[in-house]
Write a structure and sequence with these properties.
By secondary structure, the chain is α+β, with helices and mostly antiparallel strands. It is built from 13 helices and twelve strands. The protein has three domains: about 160 residues, Beta-Lactamase (2-Layer Sandwich); about 90 residues, Helix Hairpins (Orthogonal Bundle), CATH 1.10.287; about 160 residues, Heat Shock Protein 90 (2-Layer Sandwich), CATH 3.30.565. The strands form three sheets. A five-stranded antiparallel β-sheet has the order 2-1-5-4-3, with helices on both faces. Strands 7-9-10-12-11 form a five-stranded mixed β-sheet, covered by helices on one side. It has a two-stranded antiparallel sheet with strand order 6-8. Keywords: Coiled coil, Kinase, Membrane, Phosphoprotein, Transferase, Transmembrane, Transmembrane helix.
Amino acid sequence: MNTKSALSQTAAGYKVRRSPLNRAVHSLFAKFVIMVLVFFAVPALLYQEFRQADLDRQHIVLNAVREQGRLMAESLRPMLESAGPSTLLELPEEIQRLATKNNGIKILFRPIGEQGSQGVFFVASEPRLSTDALRKEKETLIEQGVFDNLTASCLIERPMALRHLRPSGIEELLTSMTAIQTEAGCWVVIATQSAEAFLGSSIGQPYWKTLEVQIAAGIYLGMALILTFLVFTVWRDLTRFRDLARGIREGRAGKSSFSVENRVPELEPVAHEFDKMTQTLQESSDSIRRAAEDNAHAFKTPLAIIRQALEPLNRTVDLDNKRGRRALQVVEEALDRLENLVSTARQLEHTSAELLNPPREKIDLSALLLRMLEAYSGSFNARGLILQSAIDHGITVLAGEEVLETIIENIIDNALEASPRGTTVSVELMNGKKTAELAVRDRGPGVPGSELERIFERYVSYRERKPMADGEDNPGNHMGIGLWIVRRNVEAIGGFVRAENRGDGGLSLVVSLPQSDD
């Protein structure tokens, strides 16, 4: 198949089919989906790796901090085990001595026999707090579940990483809790660390809440939005190009052009070439139409002269001169054949022009079909055929009147040629939701099921042909291009045609055309 025929098939029927794999490889949408998957997968993998590294770092830091808290608790153990009234007075000074700028201590006590969180008393704290602040802090620690194990037993040596907000609004980190059992009751030493020492750290909070992760997520999200916007911009312009191409094909584009619709500077050369291609196609269509008419006129003039010249010859050649009469018959049949070929060539060229630039105007298909059926009434009567019609009124389509006439003529002519005398040909025009459905049904021999698609190919015909006087095959009007022209014209104006064998004998040709918008 040459380039020209391949392009015409693609334009008319979208016959180029690519495998799903080929479409996926070249699809912009598929690439965008892959890009989205990568954008989600890479951060997820990196997040897990960095989170694990952060956990390892937390483990090292907290172990050091907790060991420091345990040492402070052990330093306080002798004082707490021998606790008396004087010890309680010395306890605030002792924990102040042990505490540092970033490290703090909280001392809790549960007397023997006390149960529940209300039996736990806040004894001392460094940094020091007022009585009211101690009460509020105790309530906060209860809400955080710090006392849960303490109220059940006094066997506690619990590492923690719990962020805690003091009543003053200062945040600190509870790093360890150590219980010391004495005769008087259970003492608990809670070591704390200033949150400022872990600023930006994930200790005591989910890793995704850290400042570095949130900044990285913001940058990554910004990149994703920019890239998505770029893809959307290209997709939007491609959609504009598609809509404009459809508008040009359907005759709704007006004076618009690809350059006008384009918004992406990098696509300007593409839009410019599309405009040039469209202009070239329109000019080619006009040239083909003019050439078709000029050629038909140029050929028909000498053919008409030859036919006129045959009239005196027919009168002068005696009927007994069989050889002369046979020669005249051969010439007349050859003239018929030439005239048919000229008409066929004109239709082919017009069809090619319609494919390039089909005319578009609002045509009342119902009225046109009624007029044509009335003109065909003589042909039906001459062949002894019965015409049945059922036509919905007010159906309009966007097409050229000549294009529609050619479609209807070829379909009806096909039914006339195939129908035996005395049978019925039915013509129906129905109003679909968005389409006009034209169906012509005959009672002819039909077509083998395997050949239903082939009848729309060029030079394919299943009609019976009579030999010429010289013994050669006489194509007559059976050149096999009628239904080919039907399909080309129908597809050129955005419709489709199909052939079906009738269950009780005969053939149905159904044409579906998009209706015009009211």
